[in-house]
Amino acid sequence: MPPTTVTKLSFVTGTNLPSGAGTGNVALGGSANQSSTDERAPAERAIDGNSDNDFRHGSCARTRKSKDPWWRVDLNKSYNVSDVRITNRADCCSDQLQGAEIHIGDSLENNGNSNRLCGTVDSVALTTLTFNCDGLVGRYVNIFLPGQDKILTLCEVEIFAFSHPTGNVALGGSANQSTTDERAPAERAIDGNSDNDFRHGSCARTRKSKDPWWRVDLNKSYNVSDVRITNRADCCSDQLQGAEIHIGDSLENNGNSNRLCGTVDSVALTTLTFNCDGLGGRYVNIFLPGQDKILTLCEVEIFATKLPSIHVPFQQGTTAPSGPETNTPVTILSKKGTKLTPISGKKIPSGKETTPQSAEGTMTQSGKGTKIVNIPGTNMPPTTVTKLSFVTGTNLPSGAGTATSNPALYQTSENPNKQLIVYY
User: Fold this and answer.
1) Element (H or E) spanning 199, and its range?
2) How confident is the model at residue 387, as a pLDDT?
3) Beta carbons within 8 Å of 3's beta carbon, 6+ residues apart
4) Best CA proximity match to 41, nearest among 53, 55, 29
5) Model-wide pTM > 0.85
6) DSSP codes joined into one string, 94-145
7) pLDDT of residue 398 exceeding 70
8) Most buried among 10, 134, 236, 423, using CB within 10 Å?
């Protein structure tokens, strides 16, 4: 593949994008707070853009000696956090940071210290400590130091993150549930109101039954990054224990057999957030297995990205385009048609060209990659694609789109050493 210039790159959950994509240090635009303040070292100093690690130079934040001190930055909106970089004090006392925890999330319950854990400081041998957070989603990043008589000092906290994909796509969906308490229809869980007191009339609830479920139809497939559930808080919060979140495109078993995103294994918090790693699907189900169960949901928020599209100009004799390595459904669009040619080492018949109008096909997920299926007007058989090389001249999920002509290379799982060539 020859060198190429990329003019735009957007992060897509689940894709194999070039490293280094994303935003800079988003902490610089945030606001900081801490549990207590040494008068010479306010919280804002840890996000002033100055990594000077000598406390005496006046660029570090510090709490007073206390029990369980913490520091927090509000990023003003939710991000997918890839890395947190902490600059420790170096002129003395670096061991004071030992055991500090990095938490990320959207909740201010327990001052944000109960949000999901990114990492723990288990060594202070280096002054600059970097923690990979694997895209944890949150507006708040906390540094929490558990213990008695602790002092938390931070000379700089840098947060590298990607903008959260979209807003709450559940708001535009339609809800259903296995049975309905007459006072609590399914739609109340997607009304945009997170009031967790059932008596205020904004929660959905089923009747007592075996294996109750709730489902939202998003009207089209999305890559789901996170599902946030607001549980009932005025009573009975333990009823949600064991509930499962399923995501997919099938309505088999009412959608409860779609892939599992996560399970409610604790109801200690009222707001529960589940990272779904870009699972693709139109339907999001909350399924509560067991006898004599009541499923109550005060709000279900779904954060997701639209499925990527590939727009491909037709060329006689070229192969039909396949999907990128997202492990999620992808739509194929072609204004003039598509054609599949035989692959060396595998007997795949050529596909019929489509009519001069547009042909839409979809990619479905498989254990080894993605499959081309259902292209109207063609006899194109399914084929599995496991790898996509970075390509210019295409509108791929990565956002690349220069006006040059280079081949896109696709590998099939059946023939890992053979490639499908698509010229643009």
Assistant:
1) none
2) 37
3) none
4) 55
5) no
6) GGGGTT-EEEEES--GGGGTTSEEEEE----SSSEEEEEEEEEEEEEEEEE-
7) no
8) 10
Name which of 39-43, 119-123, 386-390 the model is least confident about: 386-390
Q: Does domain 169-305 have CATH number 2.60.120.260?
A: yes
The span from the CA of 81 to the CA of 302, in Å, is: 18
Question: Rounded to an integer, what distance in angstroms lies between the CA atom of residue 362 and that of residue 376?
Answer: 10
> Which DSSP symbol is given to 382?
P
Higher-confidence residue of 134 and 339: namely: 134
Rounded Cα gap, residues 383 and 363, in angstroms: 10
Alpha-carbon gap, residue 109 to 395, rounded angstroms:
42
Distance set, CA 261 to CA 44, 245, 246, 276, 303 (Å): 37, 5, 6, 5, 13
Per-residue pLDDT band for 367 (boundaries 50, 70, 90) equals: very low
Q: Is 116 exposed, middle or buried (0-12, 13-18, 19+ CB in 10 A)?
A: middle
- Which residues share a beta bridge with 157? 86
26-163 in CATH: which number?
A: 2.60.120.260
Q: How far apart are CA 94 and CA 188, in angstroms?
A: 51
Write down the domain spans for the chain. 26-163, 169-305, 307-424
Q: How far apart are CA 146 and CA 152, in angstroms?
A: 10
Which residues, in sequence order, are bridge partners of residue 116?
104
